[in-house]
Specification:
This protein is mainly alpha-helical and 653 residues long. 44% of the residues lie in helices and 6% in strands. It is built from 23 helices and ten strands.
Length: 653
């Protein structure tokens, strides 16, 4: 059997990489003459492996699963054309353990690259004086981020999974790891990222590197999400939940303070940010978000924010993305092209008709509406999908539309004080096939913070209703419907914590971590006011006509349910087809201790799978995917998801 050490080298050599990187330099070596042990000798070799770690996230199998696991299962999508049989079973709720979409091996391959790097890099630092402490710190931060993000995606999808931070190097090691519990993995990831979060560079001089390589803002963004998931656990006390929510808020503030400083410095590749930022939103809320319209009511550039974020890439708002279109490097994003299509319009998935069944006509936002888009002003119902006035939402536009489509009224239609449906899909699809895939952007950090504030406020208000420990007998095998209502040579230095501001006002909030004192975090009213401001800022950017008709914006919610529904609606609108929606439903279910919200969202979509599937939806385990049968054959220490034990095919013999 070939030595796994050399298999690692061979695999690294085969990685094709975009994302602001050149191809792995190891592919220039005669691999049959290279042994693993004499490879790790200098800085260049380490950086080649770091490049391969990034490249492993660009792998078609990885991104395809990010989309399938986080988006295809949700109420945002339906089967496309041509039909992909395995994906179709997943989208109908008829998932079986033999479906290769359950195969997690591409994720573990990428994770092991990171583990290998972290094992060998310290030895290179001791050998090569050119491999500095700063270089080493950056590489450790980068691979910690990649590894943690992949593990987080795995547990959001499968719940309990095999977990190790150690590299598998040779045949004497056992690959038969048992699963580790969801919460234990989260705790380990939080500890690892907390240890390394400040090792990443604050920024690079090239904006494409700021968004295509891991920075300190990316580390804090990941940490914020880890804390948010850790807090969303029905079995924790409200005080324990709030401790994690507070940590999430602190991490969000680090990121938002950095973006505020970046805007104040106004130094991104020569671009004058003041000309592209929505000044109405900035004056009202002090968040520097990109404008859809540079002049309200004058759409002479089309949806400009969409164009920058999803068309051109490396946008000011983007914190970390898997970049395929960098300078002269054009790597095809095969996963997005298959799932969402390109100029051929063949796509394995389409937008669900229920995302927008009819043209929006309301002139007032209704907090009680179950329609995702019901007012006439929201740009996201033009940029996220194609709306056919005779058949509802259909083709997915996000990541597919070309930057040059901006300003094409015939293609996009119009929003504002009235809605005009598009009359043609012609000439809006990108001619190239290199769309970036965004993992974190500024609006998600804002909504992470808003979610944490809403939940923290609700816990503070209901802290006296905390049940005794023996009354919270709940686990994920059943349903419970009792709801509680490092600097380096390439980096320009700067401290992301330093911003100018006088603190928040009710209608105008300064972006500064100073507001996160004990008084603020202990005040439910202040938390809810701030959550409303955050949601409003995100909403207003996509609804510039609010300036002309304030009723188009949501009013201040008055109950927890109204706040929660507004937050979930805004996350769904903002992150349509970005691989977030299904995981949002899972996080909410973990927080509430039941699947009610998930069932309400998905029962209609899964109805064709039969009554047995509908009944399984009451079980918490149904939210997660089964372990791929081939994995259980290879590893008898794995335990199958309890919701799939009734399948005859799941026997281990």
């Amino acid at each position: 059997m070939k030595n796994p050490k050399n298999r690692i080298l061979t695999a690294l050599a085969m990685v094709t990489v975009g994302a602001a990187f050149t191809a792995c330099s190891i592919d220039l070596l005669p691999l049959n003459d290279v042994t693993y042990d004499n490879y790790w000798t200098n800085k260049d070799e380490v950086e080649s492996v770091v490049t391969a770690c990034y490249g492993s996230m660009h792998d078609t199998q990885v991104i395809q699963r990010m989309i399938a696991w986080g988006e295809s299962r949700s109420d945002n999508t339906r089967t496309g054309d041509p039909i992909n049989a395995n994906l179709n079973f997943l989208m109908r709720g008829s998932l079986r353990t033999t479906n290769p979409i359950c195969d997690w091996s591409s994720f573990y391959k990428a994770i092991n690259y990171c583990n290998v790097l972290q094992l060998e890099a310290p030895k290179v630092k001791a050998k090569d004086p050119n491999y500095t402490e700063s270089d080493y710190n950056t590489n450790i931060a980068e691979t910690s981020f990649i590894r943690a993000y992949l593990y987080l995606t795995l547990i959001k999808t499968f719940r309990d999974v095999p977990f190790t931070l150690d590299a598998f190097m040779d045949d004497t090691q056992s690959f038969r790891l048992p699963q580790t519990k969801f919460e234990d993995i989260l705790d380990a990831l939080i500890a690892d990222i907390e240890l390394r979060k400040d090792l990443a560079p604050r920024r690079y001089t090239d904006q494409a590197l700021n968004t295509g390589r891991v920075t300190r803002a990316a580390m804090y963004s990941l940490l914020a999400e880890l804390y948010l998931w850790r807090a969303s656990d029905y079995n924790l006390s409200k005080a324990q939940q709030n401790e994690y929510y507070g940590k999430c808020i602190e991490c969000c503030d680090k990121v938002l303070a950095f973006k505020a400083q970046q805007y104040d410095e106004n130094n991104i590749d020569g671009l004058d940010l003041r000309t592209v930022i929505d000044q109405e939103v900035y004056r009202e809320y002090n968040y520097p978000l990109l404008a859809e319209e540079t002049t309200v009511g004058v759409n002479n550039r089309g949806p400009a924010a969409y164009n920058s974020i999803f068309g051109e890439g490396a946008a000011f708002e983007t914190i970390f993305e898997l970049a395929f279109n960098y300078r002269s490097t054009h790597e095809e994003n095969t996963a997005v092209n298959r799932m969402y299509g390109k100029e051929t319009r063949e796509q394995w998935m389409k937008a669900s008709e229920k995302v927008m069944e009819s043209a929006p006509s309301a002139q007032k936002y209704d907090l009680g509406s179950t329609l995702l888009f019901h007012v006439t002003s929201d740009y996201r119902c033009l940029t996220s999908f194609y709306f056919d006035k005779n058949g509802g939402a259909s083709y997915i536009y996000k990541y597919v539309n070309a930057p040059s489509a901006a300003g094409s009224d015939n293609a996009y239609g119009r929003v504002g004080l009235a809605f005009t449906a598009p009359t043609s899909r012609a000439s809006v699809e990108r001619g190239s096939s290199t769309p970036n895939w965004i993992l974190y952007r500024m609006t998600e950090i804002m909504l992470f913070r808003a979610e944490a504030e809403i939940e923290m406020a609700n816990n503070l208000t209901n802290i006296d209703d905390e049940p005794a420990n023996d009354e919270t007998d709940n686990d994920e095998n059943g349903d419970n419907d009792n709801q509680d209502g490092g600097d380096n040579d390439n980096v320009s230095d700067g401290d992301g914590d330093n911003t100018n501001g006088d603190g928040p006002e009710v209608a105008r909030r300064k972006v500064t971590a100073v507001v996160n004192g004990a008084d603020f975090l202990g005040d439910p009213e202040a938390l809810l006011n701030d959550a409303y401001i955050l949601i409003s800022a995100v909403y207003r950017r996509s609804n510039p006509a609010v300036k002309m008709n304030s009723a188009l914006a949501p009013s201040m919610p008055q109950t927890y349910d109204e706040f929660h529904n507004l937050l979930m609606m805004e996350r769904r609108r903002e992150f349509l087809f970005e691989g977030k929606r299904y995981f949002d439903l899972v996080r909410s279910a973990r927080r509430q201790g039941n699947t009610r919200e998930l069932r309400e969202a998905l029962t209609t979509k899964y109805s064709t799978a039969g009554q047995a599937v509908i009944l399984k939806m009451y079980q918490m385990g149904f939210m997660y995917m089964p372990v791929y049968r081939d994995e259980i054959k290879r590893n008898p220490n794995l335990q199958q998801n309890e919701c799939y034990l009734d399948e005859l095919e799941n026997t281990k013999n």
